[in-house]
Amino acid sequence: MAQRGTKRGNARLQLIDTALDLFDRHGFHAVGIDKILSTAGLAKMTLYHHFASKEELIVAVLEKRDTAFRADFAAAIADDADGRAKLLAMFDAIEAWTRDPAFRGSLFDKAAAEYGEKEHPVKKAVLSHKAWLFGEVRRAAAATGAADPVKLAAELFLLMEGAVLAAAVTGDRTAVRRAKAAAETLIAAAS
Amino acid sequence: MAQRGTKRGNARLQLIDTALDLFDRHGFHAVGIDKILSTAGLAKMTLYHHFASKEELIVAVLEKRDTAFRADFAAAIADDADGRAKLLAMFDAIEAWTRDPAFRGSLFDKAAAEYGEKEHPVKKAVLSHKAWLFGEVRRAAAATGAADPVKLAAELFLLMEGAVLAAAVTGDRTAVRRAKAAAETLIAAAS
DNA sequence: TCCGTGATAGACGGATCGGTCTAAGACCCC
DNA sequence: GGGGTCTTAGACCGATCCGTCTATCACGGA
């Protein structure tokens, strides 16, 4: 008992933070646990005390990223009353994210690229994140009073995914703004 | 001299084909050259006779994929006279691709996920492919007579990227159709 | 037939992979 | 201060990583 707040808890957090950064920079297979441990200044047994395997660490990293993403997203759209404003605020939130110098693309997209098997725990974490994100878009789309809110949500979701991908791969700074402009057109056409 | 058409040429092609399949299924770092060689039934020296390194093999794989993609794409849009039809034919081509049981997402997106450094040869091959694809979209968009063809092209490009990603990650069969519907709306709004 | 050239098989190299184990350390309550 | 518990450093494990080397093999020309 009484493990939270002690060194153990700190070590766990530090492992996740360090692994998050390294995975984001170099990829999951490319980063070995030895590198994570030496970067974090921790010993192997510390890692294997908190996680049964590297795979579990990866899932924990994705869960932390997911939690942070949901909080940021919720804060970004909280102030907006109607569905249309919420949808457009989502694009603003994504644009702010892509403008961050630390932006290196979606960690979930990268994870999906390296772990393609449907039943893999890492892939499941990715799908969970994507399903939540689509749900957010769908809820806001429904609030616009669009004739077919699921259609509108699906279209805007694709724009978001494409914009994040393009911003990450090509470094295109205008991608998200273009996506938002397209979103406005689609929202207008959907009412 | 006189190497083409001999065993050497066949070995090279077989290496590329085998590597393409394995990289597509499992990722680039996850697949070692030993696995490629044992799958292809070839020896190490054969690989290192044709390629200086694994990295060179990866680039060759991407180049082959790029060449095949361009040919398929060109054939898909060749028959269509006007820009709008060409643009919509692109979505049809992508949908046909995603419906193929062998579809496992864009190999270029996966490569970008694993090789993020700008100056890396693999990343350069990815950027080359993306630049070409965007150029195709832009050319067709210009032929529609849209007021701002670059804006239209950028929007449709994001839809394509998002649709391919969504189809790959979530297995969503409707993604490309949704993207095409959105594209029709955007094209109509751009004239 | 014999020779020379170039491709091949597979052993081998050091490095690193994910993961385990042991021995010592740090800390707790009494 | 002593005894028990939890955490840690780092040696160690077999497997695999990418790449090299050597010894053999197949084949074309004279």
Short synopsis of the structure:
Chain A is mainly α. The first copy, chain A, folds into two domains: about 1-50, Arc Repressor Mutant, subunit A (Orthogonal Bundle), CATH 1.10.10; about 55-190, Orthogonal Bundle (Tetracycline Repressor, domain 2), CATH 1.10.357.
Would you kindly provide a written description of the structure presented here, covering whatever features stand out?
The structure is a homodimer of 191-residue chains. Chain A is an all-alpha fold. The first copy, chain A, folds into two domains: 1-51, Orthogonal Bundle (Arc Repressor Mutant, subunit A), CATH 1.10.10; 55-190, Tetracycline Repressor, domain 2, CATH 1.10.357. Helices cover 76% and strands 0% of the residues of chain A. The first copy, chain A, has helices at 7-26, 33-40, 44-50, 54-78, 83-99, 107-114, 121-143, 149-169, 175-190. Chain A starts with 6 loop residues before the first helix and ends with a helix. Mean pLDDT of chain A is 92; it is low at 1-8. At the A-B interface, α6, α7, α8 and α9 of A face α6, α7, α8 and α9 of B. Chain A binds a DNA duplex (30 and 30 nucleotides) through residues 7-8, 11, 32-34, 42-46, 48-49, 53-54.
